[in-house]
């Protein structure tokens, strides 16, 4: 138990250092929020909590979006770090699988890997893309990519392939319809679903207000 605590602390130090210059939506604070969400969701699931915590902490250690689309760097970097700690190989393998499968979400890549620990960390990560924080992150990412906030002449594209999605320069509001509002129905756990409902409702209210202000209606 004490050893687990030490491993978590070493991991936090490592992740903070690695993400020092990360973009605002993918920085240490994103990781800390996902870690907290994952611990909350775990309270109502029977999971290996070391696996959940390590995967939450390491899940964005090298996001493919910022590494020329290379989806393998993240899982490999995480495994390399964990091998230097005194951890069972089975735990390292499991964490590596979770990171690999979290980042392949929504793509054409099909995988047979599933575990309850993956379900928990995926929900925790998805929650951070919703609600007030999700809105803030979306506009931060859009700003980082120099996108328009909104453009009434550019409709959301609900049929985008993963490649098109990566290259898209669509306004940030479109991202709500292409991804953020779809997350509620993709949650895995009961706690995840409950929190997602609230955050979804908040995003809908935000959009209503946004269009009202856009049209100068008060
Ligand atoms: P995660 O950190 O959960 O793996 P992503 O890497 O897909 O999620 O996205 C990180 C954040 O950036 C999310 O909050 C997401 O909404 C936002 N984001 C990703 N793509 C876009 C986009 N095209 N427009 C606006 N925000 C985006
Ligand atoms: Ni993430």
What does this structure look like?
The protein has about 220 residues and is mainly alpha-helical. The protein has two domains: about 1-110, Orthogonal Bundle (Cyclin A, domain 1); about 130-218, Methane Monooxygenase Hydroxylase, Chain G, domain 1 (Up-down Bundle), CATH 1.20.58.1910. The protein is about 60% helix and about 0% strand. It has ten helices and no strands. Helix 6 packs parallel to helix 10. Adenosine-5'-diphosphate binds near residues 141 and 168.
Write the layout of secondary structure elements.
Elements: H1 2-18, H2 28-42, H3 49-58, H4 73-83, H5 89-103, H6 116-127, H7 131-144, H8 162-167, H9 172-178, H10 190-214
The structure holds adenosine-5'-diphosphate (ADP) and nickel (II) ion (NI).
Residues 30, 34, 59-60, 125 line the site of nickel (II) ion.
Structure summary, number of beta strands: 0
Query: Mean pLDDT, rounded to whole units?
Result: 92
Q: Percent of residues in helical segments?
A: 55-70%
DSSP strand content = under 5%
Q: Low-confidence spans: pLDDT under 50, at least 5 residues?
A: none
CATH topology of the largest domain: Cyclin A, domain 1
Please write the string of helix (H) and strand (E) elements.
HHHHHHHHHH
Radius of gyration, CA atoms, in whole angstroms: 18 Å
Which hetero compounds are present in the coordinates?
adenosine-5'-diphosphate, nickel (II) ion
Largest sheet, strands/sense/barrel:
none
Structural class determined from secondary elements? mainly alpha
Number of helices: 10
CATH architecture of the largest domain: Orthogonal Bundle
Shape: globular
User: For the record, what CATH class of the largest domain applies?
Assistant: Mainly Alpha
């Amino acid at each position: 138990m004490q050893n687990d605590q030490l491993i978590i602390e070493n991991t936090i130090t490592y992740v903070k250092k690695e993400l020092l210059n990360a973009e605002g939506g993918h920085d240490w604070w994103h990781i800390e929020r996902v870690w907290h969400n994952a611990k909350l969701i775990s309270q109502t699931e029977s999971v290996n909590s070391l696996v959940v915590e390590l995967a939450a902490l390491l899940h964005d250690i090298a996001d493919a979006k910022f590494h020329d689309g290379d989806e393998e760097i993240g899982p490999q970097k995480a495994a390399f770090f964990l091998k230097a700690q005194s951890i069972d190989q089975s735990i390292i393998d499991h964490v590596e699988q979770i990171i690999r499968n979290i980042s392949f979400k929504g793509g054409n890549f099909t995988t047979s890997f599933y575990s309850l620990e993956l379900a928990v960390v995926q929900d925790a990560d998805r929650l951070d893309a919703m609600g007030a924080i999700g809105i803030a992150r979306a506009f931060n990412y859009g700003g980082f990519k120099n996108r328009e906030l909104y453009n009434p002449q550019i409709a959301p594209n609900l049929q985008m392939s993963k490649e098109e999605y990566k290259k898209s320069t669509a306004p940030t509001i479109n991202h709500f319809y292409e991804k953020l509002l779809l997350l509620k129905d993709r949650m895995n756990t009961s706690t995840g679903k409950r929190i997602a409902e609230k955050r979804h409702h908040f995003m809908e209210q935000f959009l209503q207000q946004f269009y009202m202000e856009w049209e100068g209606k008060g």
